[in-house]
Amino acid sequence: MPQTLTKAVIPAAGLGTRFLPATKAIPKEMLPVVDRPAIQYVVEEAVSAGLGDVLMITGRNKAPLENHFDRVAELEAALFERGAVGNLERVRASTELADVHYVRQGDPLGLGHAVLRAKMHVGDEPFAVLLGDDIINDGGALLRRMIEVHHETKASVIALMEVEESQVSSYGVVAHEPGADDDLVRVTRLVEKPTPAEAPSRLAIIGRYLLRPEVFEVLERTQPGRGGEIQLTDALQALAGAPDAGGVIGVVHRGSRYDTGNKLEYLKAVVELACRHDEVGPELRDWLIGFVANGGPDASASPAEPVAVGAGPGGDRGYSDRTG
Predict the structure, then answer these.
(1) Domain of residue 154, residue span
(2) For residue 15, what pLDDT is reported?
(3) Alpha helices in 52-109 (DSSP H)
(4) How many CB atoms lie within 10 A of CB 81?
(5) 212 CB-contact burial (10 Å; exposed 0-12 / middle 13-18 / buried 19+)
(6) Which of 170, 175, 169 is nearest to 203 (CA)?
(7) Do the domain assignments include residue 283?
(8) For residue 270, with 0-12 CB atoms within 10 Å meaning exposed, 13-18 middle and 19 or more buried, which class applies?
(9) pLDDT, tens digit, for every residue of 108-165?
(10) What is the pLDDT of residues 307-316, one digit of tens each?
């Protein structure tokens, strides 16, 4: 009988600097998408695929994540006394959603290092990794397909999506051979954030992985790579060339996916999921149709200018965001 997968690991230690100042006091994973924080969609996806044991890899200032999935007795009591049954059910739903655990990453040494921090919790079992930035609102269908492929092949499985040539430098990209089904490829090589000229294909790794426990041993001996970080892509490259570890299979995802660590993609996620929402969806769709038909925002209105921070005689004191 195939081993049942029950554990999901969600790396959520990034600083969220692309959303400052909104993320100055709250984690980026807690930014709302309609009426839920982004991270709740990711946990719901894991649970929909049968992964009810969730480990979050966090860092400093991530206490709101733990608070969100914990009981708030005072709030529940107040809602009960007011007869606010709907709100009470929604509050309790996040608490009862999954068995959620937490461990801190400590040093910000990359995604591979974050996954390695899950070793003691996961043990000698295959497990899923879901990046906390990515919303794939498909009711767990992609993850269930990845689990099915793992059971059939015993391989590690990664989710792939075709991207524009101009976008390949933002992803890990794979070289591949045809797989057993139309949505499958066998991965032969992985390249982290290549230039368009270096990219072996346009199939990019998105934030869903199903890994055999051998990945921990590989990560322990993986040296820091691009950006001085321990890259999960480098460990996957080692697994792809190790037949005794099952190799690596890619499942090509052709549905929607939103990177909520990116401002534009975050806004797209809010709009799409709001349009599907039972309460606000119908009115929002009608408003959007009229808004677009009328040419969008008033071109004569001057947009608010952002306040320049750190500019002056010393020049621009901005910095590169590698921690997202």
Answers:
(1) 7-272
(2) 80
(3) 63-68, 73-82, 85-96
(4) 8
(5) buried
(6) 175
(7) no
(8) middle
(9) 888 999 999 999 999 999 999 999 889 998 999 999 999 999 999 999 999 999 999 8
(10) 544 434 333 3
47 token code pair: 């649970």
Q: How far apart are CA 122 and CA 212, in angstroms?
A: 10
- Would you say residue 280 lies in a domain? no
Residue 292 has pLDDT above 70, yes or no: yes
Q: Identify the residue whose tokens are 């055999």.
A: 212
Q: Report yes or no: 207 and 134 within 8 Å, Cβ to Cβ.
A: yes
Number of separate domains in the chain: 1
**Closest listed residue to residue 179, CA positions, set 152, 212, 140:** 152
Of 298, 294, 284, 266, nearest in space to 16 by CA: 266
What CATH number does residue 232 fall under?
3.90.550.10
Stretch among 20-24, 106-110, 319-323 having the lowest mean pLDDT: 319-323
Q: Does some domain include residue 106?
A: yes
